[in-house]
Structure formats: C-alpha cells, structure tokens
Specification:
seven-stranded mixed sheet; four-stranded antiparallel sheet; elongated; binds phenylalanine
C-alpha cells in the first residue's frame, strides 16, 4: 500500500477524536493487541469506548479489527467431585489392583469403589481406556486389569491432567490438550463450556504513519462550540474538531417541490429576471375572453364541445363591458371599420357568454390587456389550462402553459425570436426555431420549436396579435405573444416517455429522479 502524502496524513491526524488518538497511541508500540489490553493501556473507562473509537479508526483505514470465536472450559460440579475422589474408572482400576488384578464386576459397587450411579460410567471408561478386559464366567462379568492398566496405574491420563488445570481457573479450549478436553466434554456435568469472542486490533501502515507523524493526546476536543464555552472562555482550552465531510452518513431524502412545480417556478423566475410581470386569471372564463376577444370566430372548431369543457354551473358569464362587446361584435361581423373584412357572420352575444374552463392562458393575457391597454409592457402567465383531450402518453385534459407578451412601439419579429431564444436558453434549451403557422388572433403566426437531444421539439404558438384583437382594446403598438406547453418541456428534461408520470405522485420516481441540470 502506498501511503498518502504528509499533508493528507496530517489532515487525518487533525480530524481524530480524543478516543481515536488514545487508541492509536496505545496500539502503535504493540502493532497488535486485544481490545481489553487497549482499554487498560489507553485509559478507557468502558470497553464500548474502545470499540467506538476502533470502528471510527477502522473506517479511516487506521486499524483492522479481527474477531475470533472460541470456547472456554470451566470445571463443573461433577468435575469438582472427581477431582477430590478420582475419576470412576481410576477408582475401579485401583480397586481391581487391590484385588490382585481381577474381580467380578458387581464387587465394585458392593465394596464401595463406585456408587451405583457411577457403575455404568466407570465400566465404560475402563474399557475405553483399555485398562481392563471383560469376560463372562458362569453368568458373571469378571474384570481383569490389562498391561496398559498396570502401566497407567500411577500416571495421569490427559483428561485427568486437564481437570487439574481447570481446578482454579477457566481456560480456553485451544490452550488445553485436545484429547483430554474432548474426553471431559463428552461426560456429563464435568466441565462447563462458554463461547467467547476475542477482538484484536491491528494497526495498519496508515495508522502507523499517523501515529508517527506527531500524534498526541491533544487538548480535549469538542464537536460543538457552545454558549458556555464562549462565555467562560473555556474555548481557549479545547480544540474544535474539524468536520469530517467524508464520514459515512445515511442519505436523507426530505421533502422537495414536485418536479413540475420546480419547472413552473423556474420558468417564472426566468420571466421575472427578463423584466416581465406576472399575471393570472380565473380558470373559469366566458367564451368572450377565451375566444371572442381573440377574434376566434364563433364557428371555429376549437369552440366545439369536443374540444372545450363548457360549464353547467355557471352556465353563463355576462360580458360586462358593453362598449367592448359592441366593438368585438362589429370586428367579427364586418371588420368594425378597421382595415379588415371580419368573418362575415352574425355574432351572438349568447355564445360569447357561455362559461367554460379556459383552453389557453391567452384568455388571461387578453383580459389583462383589456384592463391595461398600455405600452410598453411585458407580462407573463404560467398557469393551468383545460381541454377535452383523451388521456394518453402525450395528452392530458389539464396542463400548464407558459405564456408571455411584449408590447412596445418597436416590437418586431426579430425581437420575438430573440426573446424566445433567451428565455429557452435560460431554461436549458440552446436553440429556438420559428416555423410559419396559423392562429386566428396573430399575423404572422409562428410555431415555436426548441432543440433538445438532437431533435426539434414543438412547443406551441407565437405571433403578433392582429389589429382585430388589439385595436378594439385601444392598443396601437404591436403585441408579441406566445403560449407553450410546459409538460412537453418537463418530459424531455426528465426523460419521460409518458406525460402521466408527472401526475402520478409516484414517490419513488419523485425521490430518485435526476436533479434539473
Ligand atoms: N394560445 C395558443 C395555444 O393555446 C398559443 C399562442 C399564444 C399562439 C399566443 C399565438 C400567440 O396554442
């Protein structure tokens, strides 16, 4: 492993907590030690403090922690008795030798060498250790000591040795003779076994380098500058722990605006930055403001019940400006004295008073202009519109439009193109293209497209309001206008194939969707 440069090592050192410092200082001269040892050497009150510091130090690659699981053997009740009285087979062997090397089995109990409960165990081990042979003589089992039995009469067998070692202390199984320990473990209540975990700390090369770089126990470190530290002047005696921005922390996902709301607010902000003023109006409007005032003829297909939501309640919204209504009627019928022939049909006030859900934000624009026929002005509206669309991947019956107008004596098409280009550049779309199009209320009319992901994306319309629209309101200067769909833009920016995703309240998507560039 190559060590980081000294500045980095110093930086690691400075960010160490007091616990990590003590741990490294205690461990460095040893290279490796048990956590209990470090607890004592490092002056830790509790083992958990060592473990805490160790896990931080481990996270920084300063130490490694190894864990080993092992058994510890301790003497149990029966073992303690055997220690005093001898193992049953040992007592049996002694008894047989005292009888000249052979005796009938029942004699062991009868003469008190073994208890009745021990008989079975004693004979079993006598056989297993090869100390005696068993033979049947006239329906009686006779035991006879073997050569091995004689040879081991005075020696201790491995199990006996282990039992002695356990007399005063518990000992890890690994430190005991395996055969002896296993023999004892196979008996009942002779030894007790407990599992232990051994935790050892090993210092890494990086840990060594940090320890060798001038590590000291340091001033007491504090993580937070408190009022008390400041007012008592104690801050002089402590060291403020620098933030460890690399420390692990769970990712918190808090509340945040809906992506569509983010885009709405972003486009509003861009309009404001470009000097526009925000307007909006009611969703419920009369056909007069949604259509008639915009020189949309009363037999225009967009007025059809198929395309527009007409309301039952209110069914009708009166046109309260009679003078304007008369002008609009005249313009529709014959041009109203303007250089226009109008549409040449009989205008109906009743149709104009039908209540509907606005089909475009241009209804808000025109009503604003009727009330504020000034020049110059720049206003915008980012708001909701409604159309009777069948819902599919590309269409929704409710959607947002981004709409703007510029009114000023010098307003021109190149100004329109420049304004749109700047607006969309700020929204993340580098190029804008205008194609000829048609709307009843603009001349010329242009369709607006933006460049995104190597494709032209169609956004909606734009143009210069016709005199049939502006003159009845008393506006003489040109009015540049445009109105675009917002969800289309959101779809490409969020990489969506289906517009409905924007309205699903799909928390998973909302959390994990990419941030806007
Ligand atoms: N109102 C038009 C629509 O809804 C867009 C538009 C607005 C066109 C302003 C020209 C001028 O599609």
């Amino acid at each position: 492993m190559t060590l980081p440069p000294p500045e980095k090592i110093q930086e690691i050192r400075e960010k160490l907590s007091p616990g990590e410092r003590r741990l490294l200082l205690a461990l460095a001269p040893l290279d490796e030690a048990s956590v209990e040892h470090i607890q004592v050497k490092g002056g830790f009150d509790q083992l958990v403090e060592v473990m805490n510091s160790a896990s931080w130090a481990k996270g920084k690659g300063l130490v490694r922690l190894s864990e080993r699981l092992f058994d510890v053997l301790a003497i149990d009740d029966e073992g303690r008795r055997y220690l005093k009285e001898g193992l049953p087979e040992r007592r049996a062997l002694k008894f047989l030798l005292s009888k000249g090397g052979a005796a009938p089995a029942p004699l062991l109990v009868k003469e008190g060498a073994l208890t009745i409960e021990e008989q079975q165990i004693g004979l079993g081990w006598l056989k297993r250790k090869g100390w005696a042979t068993f033979s049947k003589v006239a329906a009686e089992t006779v035991l006879e000591v073997t050569d091995k039995g004689r040879a081991e009469a005075e020696a201790l067998t491995p199990d006996e040795e282990v039992l002695r070692k356990l007399e005063h202390k518990a000992i890890p199984a690994d430190d005991l003779d395996k055969v002896g320990a296993d023999w004892l473990r196979s008996r009942k209540s002779v030894v007790r076994i407990t599992d232990h975990i051994e935790r050892r700390l090993v210092i890494t090369e990086l840990g060594k380098a940090v320890a060798a770089s001038g590590l000291d126990a340091g001033k007491p470190t504090v993580g937070q500058l408190t009022h008390e530290l400041l007012s008592t002047g104690k801050w002089r005696e402590v060291q403020l722990r620098p933030y460890d921005i690399d420390a692990f922390a769970p990712t918190l996902v808090g509340g945040r605006p809906h992506p569509l709301r983010e885009m709405i607010d972003e486009s509003r902000r861009i309009f404001l930055e470009m000097g526009f003023t925000e307007i909006d109006d009611d969703f419920v409007q009369s056909a007069f403001w949604n259509m008639d005032a915009l020189f949309i003829p009363q037999d225009h297909p967009a007025r059809d019940i198929q395309d527009t939501f007409y309301l039952e309640n209110p069914k009708k919204i009166p046109v309260d400006d009679d003078a304007l209504a008369a002008k609009v009627a005249a313009v529709h019928e014959n041009g109203g004295g303007l250089p226009s022939t109008g549409w040449g049909y009989k205008w109906s006030r009743e149709l104009a008073e039908q209540a509907l859900l606005r089909t475009h934000t241009t209804a808000a624009t025109i009503r604003h202009l009727a009330k504020n026929p000034h020049s110059p002005q720049k206003v915008f509206c980012v708001s909701r519109c409604f159309r009777r669309e069948a819902v599919d991947a590309m269409h929704l019956p409710e959607f947002f439009q981004i709409e703007g107008i510029v009114v000023e004596p010098e307003a021109s098409l190149s100004m329109l193109k420049g304004t749109l280009t700047e607006f969309y550049r700020r929204l993340g779309f580098p190029k804008v293209r205008l194609n000829p199009s048609y709307f009843p209320y603009t001349e010329p009319s242009m369709e607006v497209q933006v460049w995104y992901n190597d494709k032209w994306l169609e956004l909606g319309g734009s143009g210069v309001f016709r005199p049939e629209v502006t003159l009845p309101l008393g506006i003489k200067d040109p009015v540049l206008a445009w109105g675009h769909g917002l969800e289309r833009l959101a779809m490409v920016r969020f990489g969506l194939k289906d517009i409905r995703q924007l309205y699903l309240s799909d928390i998973d998507w909302l959390r994990h969707r990419p941030l806007l560039p």
